[in-house]
Amino acid sequence: MEEKFVHSTDGQELEQIDVNMIASEAALADDRTLAELLRLAPLNGSTVAKAIVPFGQKDDVHATVERSGSADGKVRIRPFRAIIGSRTAVATSAVDAWHDIRSGIYAAATSTNLYGELSFVANASGNARWDLVYASIAVEADGAVITRYVKDPSTGVVTAPSVARTKVNTVTVTKVTGTASATPAAPALPADGGGVYNIPLAYVRIPNGYTAASTIGVQDILSIEPIVQMSRVTGAMSFQPANYQNLVGGTTLTTTRFATWGSSGTRPGYIIPAGMGGMEGIVVYIDLTSASSANWSHQNAGIVDNSRDWRNRFFFIMVSTASYAQAPSNGALGSDRAGSGFNNGLPVGGSKESGTGDLSVLCMGQSFVNGGASNFIAQVGPTTQPVAMPASSGTNLYVNSSGAIILDLASTASRCGHVFYIFATAPFPNF
After folding, report:
1. Contact call for residues 292 and 391 (beta carbons, < 8 A)
2. pLDDT by residue (tens digit) across 123-173?
3. Residue 49: Cβ within 10 Å count
4. pTM for the model
5. Residue pair 279/424 in contact by the 8 Å Cβ criterion
6. Three-state DSSP state, 257
7. CA-closest candidate to residue 133, choices 144, 147, 121
8. Closest CA to 413 of 255, 273, 300
9. Residue 263 Cα to chain centre, angstroms
10. What does the pLDDT look like over 214-266, one tens digit per residue?
């Protein structure tokens, strides 16, 4: 429990410091919770940890900074929570060094949409340039000013000055305009100071000829926001792109490669933005063991899952397969049966009592193409399985142009059952 104000005696005076303590207990409740869940690094010399938590919703494929898609010269800024780690040294207060973080919400809005907008300086230089979009969080800044009567404790004189009634953490988004060049460099993030901390969000390439009527290219945005996930000490598993997949000046995106990014549409294929962090998965059981295809659990070209948008992701898939020949009495997998049956349940790989066994096969795919054979995320056939699958058979999954996972069968003679354990990254923002 945090320090708690107690008014212990009837008639006890209430001072300014007491009221402020009560307010502090309430105002810091969300930040104290975040401190326990996120466990940001403590103050390291003069370095303060910085991070954001994007707004995000189910099927949200938005980046924090994304193009508007219109000829308005702007990018959109989606909502997020900016977080600043402890600013207290261990020697000053071990407890505050642990959890004295501060956060603020950016939630600008147009008349109908929950996002802010940012425009850029026109570019007629003859070369492209990179601009840096960043957030500034002013920690415990004075809130709205109001008029209050104040009585001087010494003279008793009453005045009506303007005073700040609250302390707030305000978050704004702005930009640094870079320098146009044949090999443009990344502009630097402004230094922190005066209780204001700056967090980088994205680099935006501004081509020659850009005006307020231009459309920002989707591939001219490099997301670099430091997205934080729940700490592993909470039992959560962190899953995110390697930081050198988007670190400007790193071994992958070297300074030279960044400078020669090129015109719209030429973003390097190895770029993986921080916004692809996190993983979600589903289990799929496809039963094709019946002699009659009418009795199969799924039909060719049928939807396997459309619970979310599966487009623009990387996939890691494990497949357990068993043939009808392995358990002719009651099917191959038998998750709906008790007692006898192949493995008495779902196969998990390796040899079992059947002697033939089943196998867990690994598949890796992507869904960056809209549908069809170019977009397979899993392919299972006789060459990948040690079970009796007909030579012409094959059970494949792909993501269609609407984002659903679709079944694709090579023939109607599969006579197999499959359990797919499908794990996918978050969607690629600004794809």
Report:
1. no
2. 999 999 999 999 999 998 888 888 988 888 889 999 998 988 888 899 999
3. 20
4. 0.84
5. yes
6. helix
7. 121
8. 300
9. 27
10. 999 988 999 999 998 888 888 888 888 999 999 999 999 999 989 988 755 57
